[in-house]
Amino acid sequence: MLRSNALLLVLVLSLVFVACDSKQVYDVYKSVPNTWHKDSIINFNITPPDSIKPYNLFVNLRNTNAYKYSNLFLIVEMSFPHGKTITDTLEYRMADPSGKLLGTGLSDVKENKLWYKENVVFSEAGDYQVSIQQAMRENGKVHGVVELEGVTDVGFRIEKTINN
Question: Which domain holds residue 76?
Answer without folding.
Answer: 23-160
